[in-house]
Specification:
The protein has helices at about 1-25, 30-40, 50-55, 75, 140-145, 150-165, 175-180, 185-190, 350-355, 365, 425-465, 470-480, and strands at about 60-70, 85-95, 100-105, 110-115, 115-120, 130-135, 170-175, 180, 200, 215, 230, 235, 265-270, 275-290, 290-295, 325-330, 340, 370-375, 380-395, 410-420. Helices cover about 30% and strands about 25% of the residues. With about 475 residues, the chain is of the alpha+beta class. α1 (about 1-25) runs antiparallel to α11 (about 425-465) and α2 runs antiparallel to α11 (about 425-465). The chain contains twelve helices and 20 strands. A hairpin with a 2-residue loop joins β14 and β15 (about 290-295). The radius of gyration is 31 Å and the shape is elongated. The longest helix has about 40 residues, at about 425-465. It has one domain (about 40-430). Bound molecules: 2-acetamido-2-deoxy-beta-D-glucopyranose (7 copies). One 2-acetamido-2-deoxy-beta-D-glucopyranose binds near residues 305 and 307.
């Protein structure tokens, strides 16, 4: 009697457990609990881990440059296809702490400037910053483009260039090309037009400077707004035209922290190099230092030509003058220099650009921009921003310096700005991931236990209901 009571209690218990497990699984209580736990952590407040990581990113950020050394300048002047050799990396460690941090509006917003400093890493570089690179003379190309329709000035400038032995090409050190050098031609122009800088460098004035004040949401009101930019230099982030690169501006669509990130998410990022925001979509599952992540990458439409992606029409300058897929003309935001941005080696670009330069070999694994996020927490596991700076070169009749050159998008340098999560953050995140997995799986564990108990119950019932005779016949057998 007591025995059968126990058996049926087991049955009842397993049944109840099953109901509770299913109810919990369907009601989403645990995922919601996890989300609320994450929410509490994700706020920019003096003292939280999230604030410390935001104020001074713990993982080292590296900026690596790969230059293209021109090997056939004379042939190129005669109209041949340019041939280039990729030379790099030249690696800089990038420090980008938030400074002048001040909280506003009862802690719902925080203002700061983001000062970036680049320190050369000789041991991670191919050579010293004094390595020489032969490339297109960008200041000369800029000046020639600007005066090409003013024959009087064009003649004057062309003669000056001949005197000074300046031509379409120049050989400069890595340091000069990146951080700036005084250019003789620009200096002369500067004497007449003071707004023209006499110094040229691809990253001139970018070291140890900031690009103005940002106001971020702290996430106190809505954790999905965590670290989302509200304004930049008092402009609303909605109509930005230049600002911090790789900054995630669209909070609801993927701020850098985001609980329960789905594969359908469309991440917005902002890149000042491109003078625009772009977006990335889910590509694949990845594992970074043992932590699961989703990889997001910009689809090829981001760089598509205006007929495929009308939002790129703004890069057809002068209007209607589109270059084609895979390149963006950023002349309007680079002080009139004929600069064209693309992915390294024209990855995802039109074949015609790849074919026009000998030495281009686009490869996804090396040339793609991507960001890997942990879906549970939205924390950045790994990211690489890869961009190529090109210059638009064409024959200009008023300048003999351009010879018989064929119109080409000439690659100058590409950069890889990358970061990978540091080991102490991995340890912290691992603990969180395990904890969250345990919490989320509690209903399923209950269901599992219920099924197990159900099995035991069945077994007991069967044994209990076995005919007495069989049991009696067995007994002696077992005993003997
Ligand atoms: C955060 O707190 C520390 C110590 O209490 C203080 O020195 C620091 O100024 C605070 N930071 C901000 C941005 O309020
Ligand atoms: C800040 O909080 C105080 C008290 O709760 C309130 O009176 C005030 O209006 C709030 N200010 C802002 C800008 O929200
Ligand atoms: C950038 O500025 C820092 C500090 O002023 C300096 O130590 C560093 O050498 C500079 N880097 C470059 C590439 O000029
Ligand atoms: C680039 O090419 C120039 C001209 O041929 C050469 O002097 C220079 O050493 C090359 N640079 C490197 C880093 O090999
Ligand atoms: C965020 O992105 C969506 C879709 O890309 C867009 O509709 C929305 O206006 C954006 N919001 C902000 C604040 O930029
Ligand atoms: C734009 O790209 C599409 C697809 O690659 C191509 O068919 C079309 O000819 C291109 N248009 C222009 C103007 O380059
Ligand atoms: C950056 O990209 C280049 C080429 O795409 C690659 O060789 C290099 O290893 C990358 N650097 C890092 C730190 O991932």
């Amino acid at each position: 009697m007591l025995k059968s009571c126990c058996i049926y209690a087991t049955g009842l218990f397993s049944f109840l457990l099953l109901i509770v497990g299913i109810a919990l699984a369907l009601s989403n209580v645990f995922p919601k609990l996890v989300e609320s736990l994450v929410e509490k952590e994700i706020v920019l407040k003096n003292g939280t881990d999230a604030f410390d990581a935001w104020e001074d990113p713990p993982a080292p950020i590296y900026m690596q440059f790969y230059f293209f050394n021109l090997t056939n300048p004379l042939e190129m002047l005669d109209g041949d296809r340019p041939a280039v050799l990729e030379i790099g990396p030249y690696t800089y460690r990038e420090y980008r702490p938030m400074e002048e941090v001040s909280f506003q509006d009862n802690g719902t917003k925080v203002a700061a400037v983001n000062t970036k400093t680049y320190i050369f890493q000789r041991d991670m570089s191919r050579g010293p910053e004094s390595d020489l690179i032969r490339t297109v003379n960008i200041p000369a190309m800029t000046v020639m483009e600007q005066f090409k329709n003013q024959p009087f000035f064009a003649k004057l400038i062309s003669n000056y260039m001949t005197d000074k032995d300046e031509g379409l090409f120049t050989t400069r050190t890595v340091g000069e090309l990146l951080w700036g050098y005084e250019d003789a031609l620009l200096k002369v122009i500067h004497a007449f037009k003071h707004d023209v800088e006499p110094v040229f460098g691809l990253f001139y004035k970018s070291n140890a400077t900031n690009d103005g004040q940002y106001v971020f949401f702290t996430g106190q009101q809505d954790y999905k707004d965590f670290a989302r930019v509200d304004t930049w230099n008092n402009q609303s982030s909605l109509n930005w035209w230049t600002s911090d690169e790789c900054n995630m501006i669209n909070g609801t669509n993927g701020a850098s922290f985001h609980s329960v990130l789905t594969k359908k998410e469309k991440l917005s990022m902002f890149s000042s190099d491109l003078c625009r925001s772009m977006y990335a979509v889910y590509e694949e599952d990845v594992t970074v230092k043992g932590i699961p992540g989703y990889r997001f990458a910009p689809p090829s439409q981001v760089f598509a030509n205006a007929s495929v992606n009308p939002s790129n029409a703004g890069f057809c300058v002068p209007s209607g003058n589109c270059l084609g897929s895979g390149v963006l003309n950023v002349k309007p935001c680079k002080q009139g220099a004929p600069i064209v941005m693309s992915s390294p080696h024209f990855y995802q670009g039109d074949e015609k650009f790849v074919r026009a330069v000998f030495g281009m070999r686009p490869r996804k694994e090396y040339h793609q921009t991507f960001i890997d996020l942990n879906p549970l927490t939205g924390i950045v596991l790994q990211a690489a921003k890869r961009l190529q700076v090109n210059v638009y070169v064409e024959k200009i009749d008023t300048f003999s310096q351009t010879g018989n050159v064929t119109t080409v998008i000439f690659p100058v340098v590409y950069l890889n700005e990358s970061v990978i999560i540091d080991d102490s953050s991995v340890a912290k995140l691992n603990a969180v991931v395990v904890e969250q997995n345990v919490l989320i799986n509690i209903p399923f564990m209950l269901i599992g236990i219920a099924i197990l108990l159900g099995g035991v119950f069945m077994l007991l019932v069967c044994r209990h209901n076995m005919p007495e005779s069989t049991a009696a016949e067995r007994e002696p057998l077992l005993a003997s």
